[in-house]
# Entry
Amino acid sequence: MDFLQPSSWDDALAARAERPDALPIAGGTDVMVELNFDRRRPGALLDLTRVPELREWTLADGVVRLGAGVPYARVIGELGDRLPGLAMAARTVGSPQIRARGTVGGNLGSASPAGDAHPPLLAAGAQVELVSAARGARRVPVADFFAGVKRSVLEPDELIAAVLVPEAAGPQQYCKVGTRNAMVIAVSAFALALHPDRQEVGTGIGSAAPTPRRAPEAGQFLAGELNWAARTPLPETLAAEFGRRVADAASPIDDVRGSAAYRRHSLAVMARRAATWAWDDLRRAA
Amino acid sequence: MRVTTTVNGTERTADDVWPGESLLFLLRERLGLPGAKNACEQGECGSCTVYLDGEPVCACLVAAGQATGREVTTVEGLAEGGRLHPVQEAFVEAGAVQCGFCTPGLVVMASDLLERVPEPSDPEIREALAGNLCRCTGYEKILDAVRLAAARQAAR
# Structure
């Protein structure tokens, strides 16, 4: 095995193109587990922690361009106001040690259906920026990024450069079910983003389908029923119906962490609560 | 491959490092620093917590090569001039050590907490130590030790 350690983005892309057998590593919180347990023996590790461009975030035209190598701890500390849903999800990741190292880019690279960052990125309508030395950059909506369990549309010669997340135009929520408050792989998770500027409701479901996915029908239903102009209270029956429709959008399985039935039930509860909390926040802000 | 990194203030070099090897293996098996413990090897237990460039991390999840040119501080580097770190002292006095396997990681995490938050609330202590497991279940004494170290630090 080789250890490749580029110190610039161009060198990283060149290394990626030359070595399709290389496994990119950033915070190591997924990759090192696979190495420690002999689950994977790549031809090389491609260490991305020396690439300065990956560790920056910038703001332009209301969109945060979050470098793939920014760790969760910095998302929490620096972006809680602009990307509240993602920051809430970041707070539930692992432990302080994990949040210091783990990155949103790495979460996307692993493409686990249980990845904590994915539901809020789906709800916010984020895009992933993928770059190859040969073909340059392309942007893929997060909703189109995941291709199956732990699979994505990332090509063997591409690296994840950044994720582009619109600044929150309204309240966002994130809910996650697990057995304790730390070190939990989600049993189920749900993210919601209210977009009062265009009267839309963004959704994201985690750990309840082969990939993270949205609940577009449920979001359209709620957006159509809400009184955006007068911002009247959200009726309990409406919130509950939204919850049912979110649960219907999932296709969960029974596994060691929970049953399919529990995942559906918990999704309905989380979606009802998230919608109520977010709508109440919006009413208070008026 | 060769890895050169600064450990507890001293530049250290190891040869024949396997590229997939963890910083934890490097520290324990090549540099003779067994303070950080090897338990879960998946970031779940916190027993291998060390500082990397001033930030507490699980050494089992850092590739050894990623530590090249960085500063690592292990639990062995906390005591100064033969005098225990205040957190270590408090762990001894509060009886926060049972089998001792989780202790190095907890001491590093607690020392980091008290550097950042001199007078932490109980929820802040719990949050800071959430990634460190004690299978003797001695958590109450551990919390006592952190409170004691914080109180002493505040009194100084």
Observations:
- The CA atoms of residues 150 and 201 of chain A lie 27 Å apart.
